[in-house]
Amino acid sequence: MNHDTICALATANGIGAIGIIRISGDDAISVSSKIFDGKNLNKADSHTVHYGFIKDEDEVIDEVMVSVFKAPKTFTAEDSVEISFHGSPHIAKKILEVLIKNGARMAKAGEFTMRAFMNGRIDLSQAESIADLIASENEASRKVALNQLKGGITNEISILRTDLLNFTSLVELELDFAEEDVEFADRTALTMSLHRTEEKLRSLIDSFQYGNAIKNGVDVAIIGKPNAGKSTLLNALLKEERAIVSEIAGTTRDTIEEVLHINGTAFRFIDTAGIRETSDIIEEIGVKKAKEKIETAKILLYLYDELDSTPEEVILFIKEFYRNDLKIILLHNKIDLQNGYFENEFDAQLKAELFPEYTSEIIAISAKNKTGIESLKSELSDYIQNLETQENTIITNQRHYEALQKSLESVKKVEQAITGNISTELLAYELRYALEYLGEISGEFTNDEVLGNIFSKFCIGK
């Protein structure tokens, strides 16, 4: 661990009432004291605030308040100082320059949090939750990130690892007494424990779909034939003229993406080119992009106008792009041209062919008159509610999700090893793997490449 004294701007770039520069490291207090004209910071008590001036030799840079925090009761578990100054970018630059001149260096992205992790102040999942908390855009994501910061996932994993560790120790002991042919680990009790562990792992894994939705939002692809009203629908949802609307078929050539928050969840609506056979090279690229968006979307809004479509066209399209993890909502558009909506043979045929295997919703709308828009929003909100889990701990991190899946596979292999009376050596081998994958989440087992990737995504100063 590098114990250089590091410094960085901890507040956002730009003009503000107050800015804060953070310093951490073995010489944080002595370096800060060299440039502070006020109380001798080397003699200051921990967790105290002092008034004075930051100076570069005889030049006064700014009137400031300086907070002193002594190890180990600090964020990084190192000596730390925070300088509160008048929020000018120029002043911030001058203070950082004079700190570097006196022995500090600029911090790398996420280096403060990485030091907190390396010094045992927080575990890896808590470190990641700090970035999630900063990036949270709604109440649900804030609560989940805060629960993780308080050790939510760590506590869950710790319980699972303790059970597995106890049995692993007994199995390892059997290896030491292999010649005596004794069993210290009760295989029946181990199997019961593995069942509990497997059940908990599945529950945590299942929570990821909901956690990912509230953290990253939900991709919603708006699909249909040219002139079905896709751009008009996007404008109606956003309540602004975001997409160009024209009676000319094929107006939308590229994808247009906009985010709309519905009951605290971000839905990323993607207006796509109308899907049809075309000889226009540019439009063909747009159609290709539309199909790519379908592959990554979680919700598909398929608009159709029965005056310009056939049930067979709609059915063929839905069956072509259907997949288990895609929710499809059929939108019967342009009901303003039909003197209101009533179920007819067109929709009856769709229901007969598509319900309930492929889709279970037909919502009648007039994107032009904004009729049925609230019903659509309600259906989207219900999608999130149906994902909600009873788990107190919700998985939002892709890395955690993958580690849990690997742990589950290892636990299943341990069960198979017991059932098949596989040798104690192989049983111990699989148990170690299960423990290692669980330990990856909290950082008990990790490597420099993983750490570098995680903390490089943090902002500088955090």
SSE order and pairing:
Layout: E1 6-9, E2 18-24, H1 28-35, E3 36-37, E4 48-56, E5 59-69, E6 80-86, H2 89-101, E7 105-106, H3 111-118, H4 124-135, H5 139-149, H6 152-176, H7 187-216, E8 218-224, H8 230-238, E9 256-262, E10 265-271, H9 281-296, E11 299-304, H10 311-321, E12 327-332, H11 345-354, E13 362-364, H12 373-387, H13 398-419, H14 424-442, H15 448-455
Parallel strand pairs: 1-7, 8-10, 8-11, 11-12, 12-13
Antiparallel strand pairs: 1-2, 2-6, 3-4, 4-5, 5-6, 9-10
Helix pairs in contact: 4-5, 6-7, 6-14, 7-13, 10-11, 13-14
What's a quick, concise take on this entry?
With 462 residues, the chain is of the alpha/beta class. Helices cover 47% and strands 17% of the residues.
Task: Offer a few descriptive terms.
six-stranded mixed β-sheet; alpha/beta; about 450 residues; flat; single chain
The end-to-end distance, rounded to whole angstroms, is 17 Å
Order of helices and strands: EEHEEEEHEHHHHHEHEEHEHEHEHHHH
Task: Give the percentage of residues in beta strands.
Answer: 15-25%
Helical content, roughly? 40-55%
Strand order of the largest sheet: 3-4-5-6-2-1-7
* Structural class by secondary-structure content: alpha/beta
Estimate the global geometry from the Cα principal axes: flat
Question: How many helical stretches?
Answer: 15
The main pleated sheet reads as: 7 strands, mixed
Query: What is the residue-averaged pLDDT?
Result: 84
Which residues sit in consecutive blocks of at least 5 with pLDDT less than 50? 243-253
Query: How many DSSP E strands?
Result: 13
